Amino acid sequence: MLDAGHGYETRGKRTPDGMREYEFNRDAAAYCKNELEKYDVDVYYSHSDSKDIPLQLRTDRANNLKVDAFVSIHANAFGSGGWNDVSGIETYAYTTQPSKSTALAREIQSHLVASTQRRDRGVKFANFHVLRETAMPSVLIECGFMTNPEEAALLRTRTYRQICGKAIANALVAFYKLKPKEHNSLYKVQLGAFSKEENARKLANRLIKAGFTPYIHIETK
User: Fold this and answer.
1) Among 114, 156, 180, 188, which is least packed, fewest CB within 10 Å?
2) What is the three-class DSSP state of 138?
3) Do residues 58 and 166 share a domain?
4) Is residue 181 in a domain?
5) Quick one: CA torsion of 110, 114, 119, 122, rounded to 10 degrees?
6) Active-site residues: which are they?
C-alpha cells in the first residue's frame, strides 16, 4: 500500500512560498504505482484526491487488506517556516518493529540516495501512527526538505517526483524480488500470397497438422 502523506486540506507542511506537501507526495506515489504495475503485484492507495483520509482509516485499510508493506511518502521541513540549509533524505521505521521493517527502510533509503544524489540522513526510528498501527512492515520516507530552497525547487519538478517514485518502486522490487508481469500477446504473421485459393488451402492444411490455427483472407474485387 502506498500512502501519500497528509492531503490537500490537512495542515501538513508547506514551502515558505506556499507549495503544499501533498502535491509532491501524491505525484511521487503515482509514479511509484505506475512503475510497480509492471510487476506481478497488487498496489493500493491509502489516500484520496477527493477527500482527506484520517490516519486511522489508512492503517485500518492496510490491515484489513493484509498488504505485505505500507510505504508512506512525505517531504520534510525544519524550523519555524523560513528557509534554511537543512537537507537530505531519511527513512523511518517504528521503534519496536521487527527487523524486516528496518531492512525495508534501508533498501529504500539506499535507492533514493543513489537516484537523487541528495544527502544521506540515514534510517531512523519514530513513533508515527502509520508505523505503529500497521500490522505489516511499514516505512515513512522523507524525500527532501521543503524549507531548503534547493530541495524545495526539486520537489516542485515532475522529474524529481518521478525519480523518487521510481527509486521507491525499484527498492520494493529488489526487496520483495518481484517478477515482471507476463504479457500474453497475439501476433499474426503472413506466410503467403497466392493467385489460386487452392494453394492457400494446401498451406493452411499443412499448418493445421503442425498445430497452428491459420486464417485465409480472400480479396474481393
Assistant:
1) 188
2) strand
3) yes
4) no
5) 0
6) 142
